[in-house]
# Entry
Amino acid sequence: MSLATPPHQERPPENPQERLARLRAYRVLDGPQEPAFEELVRRAREAVRAPMAWLSFFDGEREWVKARSGVALQELPREQSLAFGRSEPGAFLLIEDPESPQLRSHPLFGAQMRARFFCAMPLTCPDGTVVGALTIVDRIPRILSPQERSALENLAALAVARLESRLEGPPAAPGPALAPGSTPGDAEVRIGHLAREYQRLTELLEEEIGLRRVTEEGLRVEKEFSDAVIESLPGAFYLVGPSGELLRWNTNLQVATGYSAAKIATMKPADFISPKDRPVIEHAVREVLDHGKEMSVEAEIVDRIGNVRPYAFTGRPLRMGGRNYMIGVGRDITMRKRAEQQMARAKERLDLALTSSSLALWDWDLKANRVYFNESWASLLGDTPRESTFPGEEVFAWNHPEDRDVFVAAINNAVKGVSEEFDCEYRVPNAAGEWIWVHSRGKVTHRDEAGHALRLTGTSTNVTKRKAAEERAEYLATRDALTGLPNRVLLHDRLEQCIVNASRNRAGFAFMFIDLDRFKTINDSLGHQVGDELLKRVAARLTACVRASDTVARLGGDEFAVILENLGDGGDGDEGAQAVAEKMIASMGAPMLIDSQHLNTSCSIGISLYPNDGKDSATLMKHADVAMYYAKEKGRNNYQFFSAEMNARAQERLSVENYLRLALRRNELVIHYQPRIKVATGELVGVEALIRWQHPRRGLLPPGRFIEVAEDSGLIVPIGEWVLEQACARIAEWQRTLKPGLRLSVNLSVGQVVDGDRLYAAVSQAMAASRIDPATLELELTESILMQNIDEKSALLRRLGELGVGLAIDDFGTGYSSLSYLKTLPVDSIKIDSSFVRDIHSDPDDLAIIKAILAMAHSLRLSVVAEGVETEAQFNALRDLGCDEYQGFYASAALPVAEFERRYRK
# Structure
């Protein structure tokens, strides 16, 4: 940094009041911009060749800008003013490059202007009072020449002369102030003197500016030439300052980065580079600026919209004003990189082909019937590499007996010209006596004048691994990877063959679908490893139950299929299939020891017979599937033959499922509400939501007609969510219009409980939409649902309980009825199954069971609801036992919305 002031001269102490009075006399404070001062500022910029300049006045509190060029500055408070912020404001101030932290943090040198050069020439009145300053600023460090300083001094004096000419009264002459009693004649002399001085300064300034313009014209020509050179460079040119900022660049850099010139002016070289390459660029720039070294690096440039391209950057130091700068060029090397990658890949492929190739060259002299092999042939056979020659007869004899005809035919076709080349795969023994597959290719390379082949040349390679892979691929394509049994593809092929053979021979066969019972429970509880081992054991047992000519296949999961061939044309076909099915069921009944655990499983079997139950594969498989599901409905662990009645039931079930899907979209489902009554008072305390289906043709259907189908098809989940949403909205309305605090009970299905997260979200959404008190909603689950994977159910019920909803056990007494899970689960109430209530007044056992349930529940502080109360005798018995609530026909059947409102509206 360079600070300069004029030689010391006597100056009266600063008088703020005198300065302010003089500024008022000049009539410059808070006035508009004036062309005369703006022209003076423009001349100052030209004289010093700086981008920014302004002329300002100081009123004691602020530096107020009267004229400016290249800058939008309006004013500076005293604490931010460099010219007037010191103890002796107004001294000539020159900062050629800021070095101190205080100056670098100043707004003029920081983000506001990013100045690196500052010069303030004071505006000094004839009596020595400093009223302002002429300021020049540049963004690059520079040195002020004596000629430039002289020009600024003249311009400052010219500005003061313009101010003095504004005085209405006698202006003060240089030196002592006008003495009291001076005459107007003295003032006229002074004005004339001032005018001559103003004229002299103007002439001197014009002369100096003329010389400056001649110099600047030469500099302009040189700049235009340098700009043209920079713009013509094939890459992106850049000039980097000592602090790492970009000072100059060409259009190519803007095009490459997509940034505007204004944006580039605020960035550093590393800002254009991808994050992974920035450390390399930053290090290279510092090497040039700090140590004066040249650099050449490659890095990825990232343009404004995120495109990434490789660039090669060069940089070299440039010494100016005692500081290091960096000048360099960046070139796009995308095409070069792409070519290098292509060459690398080509070289890699070539190297791979040369190193991995095991081609053996051979040359067959057909006239002498001798075959030459290079050393790779011995390596191919697993022997020591060596060249060798063998008689043609011996070469023929090497072939596997099954391949000799193919080999001879291929040779003859090539020799006779039937085919253009010899191409054959065959087996020969290797050095260890094992058969290996060889692929040989060649062509006739020499014939005599008559066209007879004289020489056959080609190559051979070992393809044993490929042949094995092909055989393995064929095996995997038709076999189950876990059990090794035929898969669905091979089963379908064999079933088609059976149909053809049975039709030709007028015989019959049986097709069996086999599904393991409760396999999912074993797989989920003990893990997939145990489940896979169980499937392998089942496959082995099923295979042991049939003949070698029969087919046992695995279709996937726990489903198997069996084809029993040659069972006759109907009379004894079913008896043979029946015997095999009974044998299979008995075999499955024996325990299996897997991972030190004795596992028991069973199977359900469906059987269809050809041709009675179908004459094509699709029909036979469909009918066997129908029979298998009928076996499951019969309680599992049994077999069933297909019948027309089963098909009708299956069609009915499918029809119900299809129409049920439409019912959701057509709003055919409705909800009836059954009252829950408090036993002690007969008061209505709640309702249970029960779904019905208003079928367009069959009328109102109870849930028993379609719920099972909904559960099997997965429709129970969206249906359950619809019931929950509709019932919550209804109970919210009834709590306002019928009875505050009325409770709602909604049943949950197995399908809903399986996906705990979805059920939790559905309950939360229904309560949020209806805005009911969570305590008035009760969710009902059966014991059988709870006891399936009770740990997960317990976690789900606790999450639901945290919402504030009530939880009830439905059909209590028909399942486990265990105190242990009542203690561990967040249950609020239990519902006694109607089977116990039905004979409570006549069956002592039912009475004892209900009495025990009530005692147990009340001891656990659980509420008890009796279901299916239809008679007064049943009601009286429950009342005497202390039952809390009841529901059933004795109070009311489930009612439609309108009828319920008519009955219970106040």
About this structure: The mean pLDDT is 83. The first strand starts at residue 52 and ends at 58.
